[in-house]
Amino acid sequence: MLLDISPSQGQLSHSLRSEIRKLCRVSRRTRWNSCSTNTHSVYASVGFEPEMSANLPILSTFVSSAPAARDVVVSSRQKVYEVVLKQAALAKAQSRSIAAVDLKPDINLLKEAYDRCGEVCQEYAKTFYLGTLLMTPERRRAIWAIYVWCRRTDELVDGPNASQITPFALDRWEERLNDLFAGRPYDMLDAAVSDTVSKFPVDIQPFKDMIKGMRMDLERSRYSNFDELYLYCYYVAGTVGLMSVPVMGIAPESKATTESVYSAALALGIANQLTNILRDVGEDASRGRIYLPRDELAQAGISEEDVFEGRVTDRWRSFMKSQIRRARMFFQEAEKGVSALSQASRWPIWASLLLYREILDEIERNDYNNFTKRACVGKAKKLMALPAAYGRSLISPSSHEHFVNL
Q1: Among 1, 86, 300, 359, which residue has the least CB neighbours within 10 Å?
Q2: Spatial separation of the C-alpha atoms in residues 124 and 51, rounded to whole Å
Q3: Alpha helix (H) ranges present in 159-293?
């Protein structure tokens, strides 16, 4: 995804949680509630406290019956593309109807909210955070706010109390989202997002779709084919790109269409999520999950038992090569749109793209053993990626488009 919200980065430190609570003790006049990116406070805000919810039900795992592959292709891809077109139309219009805001927070409190979002981004997505420092202050703060909302949403189903989350809790979280877009934030961090969506042509649909992705994590642990997996990847990661492009902006000198830039942002989200899946096969298997197309596993002669037992065979290596090849195709598609972004916004996206793509190289270096060996990009390579990403960010859209077409 454009913004790395992978739960593997760990939960928020105790000290950070304490500081967030302090900052969120605001006056009754603003009517904001105390908050944290910690999942406990998120759980409380959606209707229950974790320690009281041990017996709350969870939807049972299921595998939906797969329609014909062709029908899935049309429904999944077309459904996502319609959202892309809508986001592109909003960006071109550079305006949208904003609900009347009945909350006018103190400017200093709003600044604190954005600063806290920046600290969270810095702690859990260091490389990306450094790249955002080149952006204009308003865009930088907005990206931080979107990052934190995505992380809090992700932690509902991947945090320490995820096993107790119910569909009802996600219903409450979506209600909060509706209020946020209407200018009625629940807490300080929501206020930063509410302020962001009032300033940029950001539509609510990608946010709602991300919540749909969280619902899918509650409801299922298998995907019949790639088209089903593609839709899941859009919900949990491609949406981040659609949220972010309106904030990052498109370079005025770019000849790329708005639709193509949004499509490239979607492709980067898909590529990043596919990379997450390939990196975390062993970890997901330990939780009873397989985020790999079942039909392609069967074609490769690989059973679910092979996955759960972590068998690295020649069949597995061949299968992984094909999965990595597909992820790289999405990265290649994403490259076409990064240089079309405004120059100040390109660096963090190039850094994200280069580093995530490097994870695929690490899987290969581990001889495709993604069961017991985690593919990680070392600090030295991360540091080397920063100047490389910065250099690419300086290439003008027209020059990059000419290079791609050679």
Answers
A1: 86
A2: 26
A3: 167-181, 188-199, 205-219, 226-233, 239-248, 258-279, 281-286
pLDDT at 254 over 50: yes
CA dihedral 122, 124, 130, 135 (to 10 degrees): -80
Distance CA 45, CA 58 (A): 18
Taking the complete model, does pTM exceed 0.70, yes or no? yes
Q: Which two tokens stand for residue 9?
A: 């980065």
* pLDDT tens string 338-382: 999 998 899 899 998 999 999 999 999 999 999 999 999 988 888
pLDDT digits (tens, 9 = 90+) for 148-179: 999 999 988 887 777 788 899 999 999 999 99
Per-residue pLDDT, averaged over 286-298, amounts to 97
Non-local (6+) Cβ contacts of 87 within 8 A are: 203, 205, 206, 242, 245, 246, 262
Pairwise CA distance, residues 225 & 295, whole Å: 6
**Which residue type does 347 have?**
W
> Rg (Cα) of the chain, in Å, rounded?
21
